Amino acid sequence: MSTTRGLPQPGTSPQAGSGARPRVIVDTNPADVSDVLADVPQQTADDVARAVERAQDAFRVWRATPPPERGRVLAKAAVLARTRLDELARLLTREEGKILSEARGEVMKGINLLEWYAGEGFRIGGKTRPSEMPTTVLFTLREPLGVVAIITPWNFPWAEPAWKVAPALVAGNAVILKPASLTPLVARRYLEILEEAGLPKGVLTLVVGPGSEVGDALVAHPAVRAVSFTGSCEIGGEVYARAARRLAKVSCEMGGKNAVVVMPDADLELAAAGIVQGAFGSTGQRCTATSLCVVHREVGRRLIDAIVDRARAIRVGNGLEDGVGMGPLVDANQLATVLHYIEVGRVEGARLACGGRRLTDGALAQGYFVEPTVFADVQPGSRIAQEEIFGPVLSAIEVGSLDEALRVTNGVRYGLSSSIYASDANTIMRFVDGIEAGMVHVNSPTVGGEAQIPFGGIKWSGVGGREMAEEGLEFFTELKSVFWDYTGRARQTNVY
Ligand code: UN1
């Protein structure tokens, strides 16, 4: 099992002087592979077992901590993170590659989530209902699950841990976090900040290592009551099946093949800008990235020209440098995958409207850079229209009506995010109604999410409930229903 969205693991090497173990992960900057951030020791299944044991002890203390108090730890962590925004963003850019402004946005998003869930400490609760019985009150309590596992991907190394760990903690659980092997340092900073904010040791533990060992051990451990995973469909399906076998709760947030539909009455400049942002932001490495542009043929040529103009103007390079608009892919495997899909697009007969090459001029040779790439005249059934590429590759398809746009857009196995650019309210509402996706944007890009609204998808994009907002908290709790006859006599009349 791997969290690298189905891709092979990053470079590892035996530690000097040791035998087969311990091994280390060589954490490198994808914009410049000569920049090694750290050698991070890889942990093992035994480390997982020890972490779970420690977490079981920590759970008893944390569970007894009043929820508003738990929330205050998150609130303090949010304040600490805000004062370190620049430092965190720079580390994120060096470790993952996204450009500095995107890294700052990601850190801010994690902070928003800490703030939201800090407030939930005051609101965790159930409901009361009248009873069929006299002198009887019915109510529910929300309780923590115990020890839970959280497995996060490399593409949002700060925000993903933030949005899964924060609700798990405020609900009173002890958490074992397995960050992606490509980005362990940012995740470690998150843990350090929470502990500095007052989180007792052992309530959150980081385990770093290959999914096939550390991830598997976590998913199989009988004391791990729930697994929250984000990554590829292939791995998510495995996690779901294995955890289900021992009846643990599972939430999987997986891939996407997100489309923007553009109708003739759209503001085409706005649409082009939104599509470019969605397709090439974060180098296309986000599950909500725009990878399909489904445009009405009346405006197809004009829109694609506008997209191509904008794509060509993007400066690709090291995300720490001013003026750079798109960073590298995260590693050599991701680069190989994207170049492979570009070749597939060519072979399938799509028209390469721009991009398509790896960039190796000067310092770029030291990193995993590709051009923003646009294919036009793409066939809806082709692989580049159906499969998640997870890179800066946009496939454009022309259609003749909204119904056809919906058929094409719904004709993929995923159902995460979607968007329509149009003015007519009727058209927009028909799209909102007919689209098979967990999230719909109107006149805005497919990417992003906000702490206060549920995030997640349907079909192959997600299973096990939504993340963020109150819904994200529900996953990390169990409900207890209480039936209370406060006179001690009402049950005599109970015929139910
Ligand atoms: C976003 O688009 O801001 O792995 C968040 C991902 C998603 C997060 C996307 N889980 O890309």
Task: Give me the secondary-structure topology.
Layout: E1 12-14, E2 23-29, E3 32-41, H1 45-63, H2 67-83, H3 85-96, H4 100-120, E4 128-130, E5 136-144, E6 147-151, H5 159-170, E7 174-178, H6 184-196, E8 204-206, H7 211-220, E9 224-230, H8 233-245, E10 249-253, E11 258-262, H9 268-280, E12 290-296, H10 297-312, H11 332-347, E13 351-354, E14 358-359, E15 369-370, E16 373-376, H12 383-386, E17 393-399, H13 402-410, E18 414-415, E19 417-421, H14 425-434, E20 439-442, E21 458-459, E22 462-463, H15 469-475, E23 477-485
Parallel strand pairs: 6-7, 6-9, 7-8, 9-10, 11-12, 11-19, 12-17, 16-17, 19-20
Antiparallel strand pairs: 1-2, 2-3, 4-5, 5-23, 10-22, 13-16, 14-15, 18-21
Helix pairs in contact: 1-7, 2-4, 2-6, 3-4, 4-5, 5-15, 9-10
Bound molecules: 2-aminohexanedioic acid
Strand elements, count: 23
| CATH fold assignment of the largest domain | Aldehyde Dehydrogenase, Chain A, domain 1
Shape call: globular
How many domains? The number is: 2
Radius of gyration: 24 Å
Unreliable stretches covering 5 or more consecutive residues: 1-19
What structural class is derived from the secondary structure elements? alpha/beta
Q: Separation of termini? A: 48 Å
- CATH homologous superfamily annotation of the largest domain: Aldehyde Dehydrogenase, Chain A, domain 1
